[in-house]
Amino acid sequence: MNSVLLDPVAVVGSVVDPELPMLTLTELGVVRDVRQDGDEVTVTITPTYSGCPAMDAIRTDIRSALRRAGYGRVDVRTVLAPAWTTDWISESGRRKLLEAGIAPPGPAPRRSAGPVPLSLTTRPVPVACPRCGHGETEVLAAFGATACRELRRCPACREPFERVKEI
User: Fold this and answer.
1) Where are the alpha helices (DSSP H) in the chain?
2) 135-146 tens-digit pLDDT
3) At 60, is the secondary structure helix, strand, or coil?
4) pTM for the whole thing?
5) Which of these, 8, 72, 6, lies nearest to 43 by C-alpha position?
6) Furthest-apart CA pair in the chain: how many Å?
7) Residue 23 near residue 90, CB atoms below 8 Å
8) Burial of 101: CB neighbours in 10 Å, binned 0-12, 13-18, 19+
9) Residue 87 per-residue DSSP state
10) Among 45, 78, 106, 126, which residue has the least CB neighbours within 10 Å?
11) Starting at the edge strand that comes first in sequence, how are the strands of the sheet with 31-37 ordered?
């Protein structure tokens, strides 16, 4: 066991998202809390959505990073409320998405408390191309590599790109 342990907040802050490896989990807004009690660390996370397929990998990566840093006991807890929102992505995270060619989300829609209204039609969302900056792009597929992303194409440079949808 290390006599001087690294700051657990910094250790957890260095863990990258397995699906968006240009972002740390902290930049993505998934990490809610990190608490230390001696050599035990409790990390609280909120998935980007309840069915996120990367949650097992995220838990494993957090545990591994903290154990490498000398923490003997690591508890990773998942909380679903309040639900994660793309508004929790940090400014540095949004910048890194853009630099990686992924359009970052705009502000999440505001809804009143209660049931979420169902709409069978979608309103087009203007999204600028992260490669050339052209202001209008087209949707190629409503879902990209994950449910929270969509595939788009720029009519100016003709390049396809992903966009993180507002949640």
Assistant:
1) 8-13, 25-28, 55-68, 91-99
2) 999 999 988 888
3) helix
4) 0.84
5) 8
6) 59
7) no
8) middle
9) G
10) 126
11) 31-37, 40-45, 73-78
